[in-house]
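Hey team,

Sharing the Efflux RND transporter periplasmic adaptor subunit run so nobody has to redo it. Sequence (356 residues) first:
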Amino acid sequence: MIKSRFTLLGFLALTFFSCKSDEEKVEEAPTESFRNEVAATEVHVAMAEVKSFDYLINATGKLEASSQVTAVIQQAGFLEELNIKEGQYVNKGDILARLDPTEAQFRLDKAQISIRNANAEYESMKMGYETIFESSDQERKNIIDEQLKAKSGLFLAEVELQEAKLNLERCEVKAPISGKIADLKYKEGSLVGASQELCEIIGTNQLVLKVNVLESDIAMISSNQKAEVYAVSNAQNAITGRVIGINPKVDENGLVQVSIAINSDRNLLPGMNARAIIRAPQSNSLVVPKDALVYRSGRAVVFSIENNESKWNYVEVGKDNGEEVEILEGIEPNSTVITSNNLQLAHQAPVQVVKE
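Structure output:
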């Protein structure tokens, strides 16, 4: 009985060690044989290059007229004639409207009579000083002449005449600049007061796009720097512009206002929304195509190729222009990087480069 138990234990022990030996043989099988059985992933590649890199600063804003002036009615009266309508283009100096000139003309006639009377009085008083005016004492003659003009009322009459002429001229409202009429306030026949706004005149030869740029990007923007402007109404066609002003203060949101001038276009109007792209060239940057960059667990990764296998590289990303990405750290210049089929790619996976 005891001998049978020892025989059974020996058999179980032999079976256990035999199974363990087989498991060890399986574990010791080379992983290379499995890797060779996996089909290589077809990939496209590019070179990590050190070159000039255009960083694109994107910003949005509204178009404004480069010049906008209010045409003002300078004196009260009836709007006898109105020569404009909204949207009409006018040149500087064009007559926009006329007020009833009757009262202004009456004041001018009155002032002309006053100056004739004052001049007659002056000549009459001058006769009493013939000896002085015939002498060679120029200084004394000037003093007496000034006194006589003042006493006769000639000085005051001359000022009143100029004032009356000015009031008559103000019956015509003229365009202070060239541009298009906007926000017309009155109709023909209206009774208007002095210093009332007639309309706005918007200069259309040039428009200005005012955009807000992050304070971290403002150091890369300078006056006369080129920009591309895309209006919302025509987002496919770029309009060339240039930076004409940078506001020297940062607002509470960390933004700086930048003004970009563009040539006028018949399809553009003040108040339209537009987007600007300002190119800021960066020299000697290590750059890869944007398709080479993937994110794993929130970290940026670029796959390179070594010995026909993918290599996982954590990278530190710099600026991005939509097509290329600046790499600050993580890969070496002239590395071959994978640009396709890299979203699910693993480290040391076999790859096959596909040529275009």
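The chain has three domains: 37-53+284-353, 57-66+205-282, 68-200.

Ping me if you want the raw files.
A.
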